[in-house]
# Entry
Amino acid sequence: MSGTNAASGAAPCRFAHYFVICGIDTETGLEPDELAALYQWLEADRQGRDPDTAAAGENFEQSPLKRTFKSKVLAHYPENVEWNPFDQDAVNMLCMPKGLSFRTQADSREPQFHSFLITREDGSRTYGFVHTFYEEVTSPQICSAMQTLYQMHQAENPSSATPSSSSSSSMDSLASSLDEADSPSSSSCRSAACGGYDASRDTLYVSKALCLITPMPFMHACRRFLSQMHRAVTAASPPPLPLESYVHNILYEVPLPPPGRSLKFHGVYEPIVCQRPGPGELPLADFPLGQTFTLLGVENLVQLFNCTLLEMQILLYSQDYQRLMTVAEGITTLLFPFQWQHVYVPILPASLLHFLDAPVPYLMGLQSKEGTDRSKLELPQEANLCFVDIDNHCIELPEDFPQFPNKPEFIQELSEVLLRYGISPVGGAPPTSSQQALRELEDDGRNGNLGGEQLAVLELLQGNATLERLQALAKRTGVRVEALRGVGGEGEGQGGRTTVEEEELRNAKLNVQLREVFASRFTTMFADYEAFVIQSAPDLESWLTNREQMHNFDKASFLSDQPEPYLPFLSHFIETQMFATFIDNKIMSQWEEKEPLLRVFDGRIDKARLYNVRAPSLRSSNYQRCTVLKESGESEETQAIEQRLMKIDHTAIHPHLLDMKIGQGKYEQGFFPKLQSDVLSVGPTNNNRWSNRTATAQRRKDRHRQQTEHLTLDNDLKEVEGCLVLQNSMAFWEWDKASPPPLKPPKKSASECCLKYMQEARSLGKNLRQPKLSDLSPAVIAQTNWKFVEGLLKECRMKTKRMLVEKMGREAVELGHGEANITGLEENTLIASLCDLLERIWSHGLQVKQGKSALWSHLLHYQAREEKLEQQQAESPVSNGPERRKSESSIGMPSLRASVIQDMRHIQSMGEIKTDVGRARAWIRLSLEKKLLSQHLKQLLSRQALTKKLYKRYAFLRCEEEKEQFLFHLLSLNTVDYFCFTSVFTTIMIPYRAVIIPIKKLSNAMTTSNPWVCVSGELGDSGVRQITKNILEMTFDCQNLGKLTTVQLGHDNSGLLAKWLVDCVMVRNEITGHTYKFPCGRWLGKGVDDGSLERVLIGELALPNADEDFGRGCRTPDMQHSPGQTRRVSITSMGGRGYKPTSAQIQEAIGEAVNSICKHFHKPEKERGSLTILLCGEVGLVGALELFFHNGFKSARLFQKTVFVWDFVEKAVAYMESADQMGDMQETAEPLGLTCVSLCHYVSAINSSPRNIGKDGKFQLLVCLGARDRLLIQWLPLLVECPVIQRMYEESALLRDRTTVNALIAVLQTLHDFPITLEASLVKGIDL
# Structure
């Protein structure tokens, strides 16, 4: 219709889009609220009762004054706005979230104010501001119906003198909490006072709501306008103009203030001022942050802020809708420059409680009923939930999440700002006397029954901080407050401003100062973020096409540049959707106009750089206070706010008479009239005489300036304060399935692709920003849940893919390909987020919640059933043996059973873990490390009867196809090795099994000596463990050793059969199943091989057998192990004339060994692994130097006795000692003399060690000690110069080639830059 189009043509520039009236429809009469019935149906379904019987019929046990009746949108003006189609169901539900409420003259009828918002699919928001008041019911039919309902209620409950509590209590009316306080003590109270109704003597009142719907959150201005509209209805004399004039004025003649300007428009009685921040200022935030801090306290609020940043599930809980909205808007405001990307419903209507099932991050507000015990509130999932009880000033936090960096200093700075404004930093503490009095009155619940004087105090104190002392004085002197009314809310304050305006200015200044402190933290933490943004795409279209495959941010490099204390928080935060969106916006700013929040943030970083030139590498974890606030606490923005109020930039035209029919809308005190819709559905046209007022030269000039500054809001919907830069209005119409508006010719840009991408590709689990409020049938609820199932599956695919890509990237580096791009911290973050995802999947569609962890609860049910079955099988004569896994190694090691139950028992025996959430996470980590996560979960879900009992039909775990895909994605994680259990639970006791495997063909299978073993890992060693003679296998418990590195194996050489040829030692962690093989291939015994009675063996993780699950066979590259017989070049009695490496190969081996050690020290400390492997492993430094020393060595057997390199070292040292005694070395240079002494000292210490290590073991020890103490390059020239070399080495030996030796010294010199530390197992018993 033409009127609509005319009305909405300039909608994006208008202050308000709609004026709405909600209340009772006298034509349809009293209708039970369908939403209440649906809520009862859902609640019964949740609790496992028959939902149909629960919702059938009316609830006559409950007084009709307590019951919920259907409200309707009685009128809304205009009919429709192109930019913001009117959603009648949503607006009705949010204006009156709990339907109509009835009162009598004996009840409280104080007006209430609350706000709400509707978030569209594209992230844009519409705000609603609601003034609810009570109006007398004049319809005889409704009074009669209420009388009848009350009589039926009395007949059902003849003994009820007071209203009974309701089973659907959470659906009570908006202010029901007020009259559910202590009932009158007098037993002879009138029926009305006790919740009764008698039409002959009681006056019936019903709630009605006036609502303004606006594109921006001008909360204070809307509140004042609506309050004046209500005042005009209740005043003794009619308002100056018909109410239509004021509604028409605010809908069509009051524009949005331009950015950086203030605007004055007129209400019914007083002018109203609002202002909008400039382009470089923090975005508009009109909800008072001071109130949020007062309600929660600084510490709680910072914790809530942290949970929001980490995208947890957040549930706000309060009796007061406006408190829910204030806290929700406050916390999202503080996220600047980031934005909440998930479900955001600050006021969740009672009929949408099933939405708490959502297995995605959300921020929702739930209205509590007075007296409701928190413990009785059944929430579907709590493992990742932050529960905020606003009224009781407390929060319940999830387990195990990183703290915000510099939290104590941050809290201290915020507290100082609050104290400057007289607000206590402790939540719930009395901030100032006026606020305390106000809160006492609010919380009392009986303020409707207060005497006139106390109510007057309440009205006087609201929004008036300057009357604190006056109030105290009035109390002392007995002055009645009515006498002070002239000084009240609209009295003069400073600079000609009213006291209400003073309070608003004070709130605005406090808002800015608190937000500046938060913004300053992000400016400090992300000062250099731009350097790590990866901008590889040539144009926007190719970037959008390949978005999911591309890395947009160099996370590993960014984290390596941060202070150590910040890492736990930052590694989690950079994985969130809000951070990903922020980086996406940064990349898109190359081709599109910068997103407003990003523009402001980048401007702040540039400004900070001017004042504080800091190299990125010189980061400090010292707390940097907010530099924007000056000594007084003022900032440029607070001064700008005050300046805009002192000098109003724009004044809207005054309300004026409209062309109306005479006699309609006649004034009647106490009743809001029916407005004339024909004058309100059309905006001013060009031939309207009032439009001439808008065409003044000043307005033309202002409009021109706005256009040149690109600040107008035209068809391209650039919402300067909004959440998304959306340059294509089609978005709204695709979502609402309405016909699109006429569009300008499209610009040549990729906005449409951009919009589609933002709505789809970038959203993980973000399928619903806000539930669709129009249709709430069970079918729609099922459709909603189906979207959740799809979202969860997509999130699982993305997470497993990310984990694989990052892990494989790291392993490629270890193999010498590419650069490292992950740290252990980041890996731990990814695993923690996988644990969160599994908890959310197991929480989706639960029938009845048990415990805080849905996954652990399911496992316990499974365990109980399986143990019952096991017991039955044990009692029956024929018993199927338990499923067994194949042995990790075909030799010697008994098989280890793969069992969900067994792994649960391991976790249950860990006393360190106290909660169900902790046990579930430990179980996930253990299963992932054992490469059994997918197999275990498949086994768990194979018990379909149990799954059906625990989960509703729409649950993720009962969607067969999606469940199979989910398990397949988890199976892909078996291709890489994780040590996520071993590395996290470092203090637990673990059973280990050790098996010694001799070479039976060439040695005695039995020995008369007493063998012992000592197992060492990255976290410690087991100590010496004696093995029973000829058993060769043992099990022992000790504290977690981490990844195993070495085994010391030896015996006491007792008895006749003491010589022992050992093939290898196998050691298995009996919890994780990791089996390590420690190859030996050498003799232990006197007079055989090199005479060693003990050896240090280097381990490798053993491969599972090929016939195991295919996924379990894929794994990371092997670690090096201890040198075996085959690698030795020395010719022992066993060895043949084996392969001899060339000089070039030997030099290359030394280079590789040294290079590996250098790489080791360039990794982050927590990532380095074992240095012992690099020193003594198969391709380690010791082995490479042995090859060097063996080259050209005269190892001819004299009387069948093998000559070892250690023999050469001993002879060289003996020569040096004898030369020193004879005085031949007196003439040598002093440093050389000292070096000679040190070599003799080390060799002597090794020889005199109580350990029975052989000659090769002694040479290994000498090399390790020389590398540690930086002496190797000093010892080499001594050995080369010693005359003994000519007798023991051939002319062509590498050791006799000066050039080669000098090259070796140069290579070894590079090790001096690193602090080499040796494992205790290597240097045990050496006294230097």
